[in-house]
Amino acid sequence: MHNRHSNACAKVTDASCQEHGVWTLSQIKTRRDELIGGQAPFAAILGCSDSRVPVEIVFDQHLGDLFVIRVAGNVVASSQIGSVEFAAELFGTRLVVVLGHSMCGAVLATLEQLERPTESRSPNLRSIVDRIRPSVETLMETELRQNPDALLRHAVRANIRASANHLRVGSQLLEHLIRKDELLVVGAEYSLETGAVEFFEGLPARG
After folding, report:
1. Burial label, 118 (beta-carbon count in 10 A; 0-12, 13-18, 19+)
2. Are 98 and 187 in contact (CB under 8 A)?
3. Which of 27, 54, 64, 87 has the maximal Cβ count within 10 Å?
């Protein structure tokens, strides 16, 4: 099973470095017809809702390839965990990518809240900030606090790591699959500036 999720990981990482393919309307219709009977996405992507990070385009994938879950700040709550469980249990998806991105607005809002607390945000927006806060607040106690750009860069990655770890330990089903080497959870960051994706957390060693 290690080969299965390693191959899936290679597929999504390699695709992120390629130019996007363009399908004709005829090809899209053919593929859509093929998927009427079911789906078998090779990867689940937990990504941010940011309109500048369209997951299928980022990874050059098409209909039926990815099971996509998007939420501001790529945070993890019960519904996100349940969605990953759904993909893993029903469709046999064996790779989960937590995809954050540079200059994430939700992470920036969390840093601003830590710097200048306010009660003006709605409870729903505050719930997103509160989920990001534990992963980034310790950074405010370092010298990074004097460098806002560097602080945001480190905070984005800390939040991605936290979300990936939450998926690894927040579900008995996912933990069981991970222990059996039937599920891999990795963290990656998409650069708004370059369009590149860097996988920096949880990747198996290539050998």
Report:
1. exposed
2. yes
3. 87
Instruction: Summarize pLDDT for 5-36 with one digit per residue, the tens.
Output: 556 666 666 655 555 567 788 888 999 999 99
* pTM metric for this prediction: 0.88
- Rg (alpha carbons) of the chain, rounded to whole number: 18
Closest CA to 183 of 98, 82, 100, 93: 93
Instruction: Assign domain 2-201 to its CATH architecture.
Output: 3-Layer(aba) Sandwich (3.40)
Contact 23/35 with Cβ under 8 angstroms? no
Going by pLDDT thresholds of 50, 70 and 90, the confidence category of residue 1 is: very low
Sign of the dihedral defined by the CA atoms of residues 97, 72, 105, 117, in that order: negative
